């Protein structure tokens, strides 16, 4: 565990220092776009924070290559190099978009290429689903399923990047829960070491988000841009696939107790990686349906994302961000408790009671924080907030 703590602290420190440097340099050389019609912020703000996060991630992987404790994840260096190569590609395209607003087809093509590099050259694919030993039918099905999964998660994370501190905080919470899950999963498998690629990626992302948040908290001095949001989505997808796509269904147990039944236990390894990004996925799905039903591109900007709806309900920017944090934390923790319950042989009634209690607390919290009526405003203050597309 000490090595994981070092990973988080090192990545956070490097990311924070580089983010501060990027912010200062961007202001000095005016490396930021002008205010666009769909932007929320009032003053020109650099959108190159993702570059600092990427360099922080890269620095930690460079350290891991030299440290004996991390040698286990470098036993298959091709996989690491494929992930880093794909990450580099997506960050470069993201930086170009943050500076010059690339066409969405170029960005989407780069996303599929990056996902293809991971699935093909890195051989990090969804080979099986932990439901009764269900295996993916063929190599092409596995490759296609993996590529589409990575692209969907990338865009889901990118789509919620509309408020100061939103993506960094949500991803910090999600990766913290997923880190705990992957760590416990390796423990329950009886592995000789709890160190694994999924946990390393999650720890690195936790550090990157911690290091970036001080400059991104409202009012933000620096945005992560597409380069940061797409990188977070890409690495989160890789972390989930490294666990779920190769999980042995025997891990979940096979006795007759409901808490350890195949029905419940087998689905948790699939559901938890999805749940930790549930809000981004929900927002992404609604946006695609909404835009395509109007004959528009699924990537055309609008102001109907979940965070925009919260602002319209009368929440301040910070209130909306904190509610997203609460939703992410409570729902993902509920599923983590369900996993812990299956491995600790909790009685079924007790397990469900805990899970529903946590979800109920989440509902009460959200209701408490929701304004009773929409805030009234003057016509000038009631102008629409459009997607910043950072």
From TrEMBL:
PANTHER family: PHOSPHO-N-ACETYLMURAMOYL-PENTAPEPTIDE-TRANSFERASE, UNDECAPRENYL-PHOSPHATE ALPHA-N-ACETYLGLUCOSAMINYL 1-PHOSPHATE TRANSFERASE. Its cofactor is Mg(2+). GO terms for biological process: cell wall macromolecule biosynthetic process; cell wall organization; lipopolysaccharide biosynthetic process. Its main location: membrane. It is found in: Cell membrane. InterPro entries: Glycosyl_transferase_4, PNAcMuramoyl-5peptid_Trfase_CS. The chain crosses the membrane at residues 6-27, 48-74, 80-100, 140-159, 166-185, 197-217, 229-247, 267-289, 320-340, 352-370. Pfam families: Glycos_transf_4. Its EC number is 2.7.8.35. Keywords: Cell membrane, Magnesium, Membrane, Metal-binding, Transferase, Transmembrane, Transmembrane helix. This is Decaprenyl-phosphate N-acetylglucosaminephosphotransferase. One of its GO terms (cellular component) is plasma membrane. Mg(2+) binds at residues 158, 226. GO terms for molecular function: metal ion binding; phosphotransferase activity, for other substituted phosphate groups. It comes from the Bacteria. It is a multi-pass membrane protein.
